[in-house]
Design a protein that fits this description.
Shape: elongated
Structural class: alpha+beta
Number of strands: 15
Strand content: 25-35%
Bound molecules: biotin
């Protein structure tokens, strides 16, 4: 969680972006074609409905084809949609969404510097709770500790969700834990594999990082204005595409499952889990989040080593406190509270007296 004070947001995305609005013509053509999956819609009919020339219709059809839409065209019959690509444009995503309010407004971009930066900007301009920003790729995807997040186009998920919880700032880290739990659950549901959470909020599959979270908060002393939940999930990227320096520590759902994942299905599942866990957090408080987080993380009792703000700390991870800090018991019986850093496990298994029961996930939907 990065705390931001006023005026933090001064960088603007420098790329020309493609935003899909519900009203644009591509969207309207797609809606019409989808309504008639087994019949052809004539160019004349489309031009009449869209109030544009037949040449304009043809240009739009060509554009949609260039995006990966398979559209059959027959002289004298017209156009028929055969297959849609796995794009995350609102019209592709919305039919799969099962949420009540989260993701009802999708700001979609072909390319952004960072979805977090764009979501922050939108939130500053008044964007509401549950609005999401999605990009097919990021030029400057932000990772933890000032790192970059590898963000190749059309393969993974880069998502930022705007939340406006009525909580004091010290509770905001629980939102990060909440989002990690929701992401782990969505991964398990979509892949059938059991991920684990590595403190603070890396999601691992078979010990390699498949997803990461970077949440940013804007607040004043006693009030949170908004939280930007930034989530990156490696879905369909192949191992060989990862930059060399992360190739051995990163993975994707496709690598682990041996088959591609539908990005829109995954997105729908993730938003559903986020909505569920966020509602639970607001209703019941942090205890339920911590309980589930501990079950996914299984960090209690592990021998860990880490560097935090230049200090190397080694010991047994005892717990995570209500603010998301890691408590480490060092050799001298002293307990240290760590708020940032990368954990390295230096054992094979946890010390049993600290262990967390594995079956405490809650609630099931
Ligand atoms: C980490 O280092 O583990 C956190 C990575 C977070 C990446 C996501 S991708 C979507 C959102 N936008 C960003 O710029 N970063 C987050």
């Amino acid at each position: 969680m990065t705390a931001n004070d006023t005026n933090r947001f001064d960088s603007q995305d420098s790329f020309a972006v493609t935003i899909w609005c519900e009203s644009n013509m591509d969207e309207e053509i797609l809606q019409l074609l989808r309504k008639h999956p087994s019949t052809f819609l004539s160019g004349e009919e489309l031009s009449r409905r869209l109030k544009v020339s037949r040449t304009a219709v043809w240009k739009k059809i060509s554009h949609l084809r260039s995006l990966g839409y398979e559209i059959e065209a027959l002289t004298r019959s017209g156009y028929r949609l055969i297959q849609s690509p796995d794009l995350l444009i609102p019209s592709e995503v919305k039919p799969s969404l099962e949420t009540d309010w989260m993701g009802k407004t999708v700001h979609y971009f072909n390319r952004l510097d960072s979805t977090n930066a764009k979501a922050y900007e939108l939130a500053m301009r008044g964007a509401g709770e549950g609005e999401v920003v999605i990009a097919e790729s990021q030029a400057k995807g932000r990772g933890r500790l000032g790192r970059n997040w590898f963000s190749p186009p059309y393969l993974n998920l880069y998502l930022s969700v705007i939340l406006r919880p009525d909580i004091p700032p010290h509770q905001a880290p629980l939102i990060t834990l909440m989002a990690a739990v929701a992401t782990a659950e969505a991964i398990e549901k979509c892949s059938g594999l059991r991920p684990s959470i590595k403190w603070p909020n890396d999601i691992l599959l078979k010990g390699r990082k498949a997803a990461g979270l970077l949440n940013e908060i804007r607040s004043e002393t006693d009030r949170v204005h908004f939280v930007i939940l930034g989530i990156g999930v490696n879905l369909n990227v192949d191992e060989r595409m990862f930059p060399k320096e992360i190739r051995v520590i990163a993975t994707s759902l496709k690598e682990e499952m041996g088959r591609k994942v539908s990005r829109k299905v995954f997105l729908a599942s993730l938003l559903k889990e986020l909505e569920k866990w966020y509602a639970l957090f607001l209703k019941e408080g942090g205890a339920v989040i911590l309980k589930s987080w501990r079950a996914w993380a299984q960090i209690r009792g592990r021998h860990v080593k880490m560097t935090s703000f230049g200090e190397t700390i080694e010991g047994i991870a005892v717990d995570v406190d209500s603010e998301g800090a890691l408590i480490i018991e060092t050799g001298r019986g002293e307990r240290k509270k760590v708020v940032a850093g990368d954990v390295q496990y230096t054992d094979q298994a946890p010390i049993s007296k600290y262990q967390t029961p594995n079956k405490s996930q809650y609630p099931k939907s």
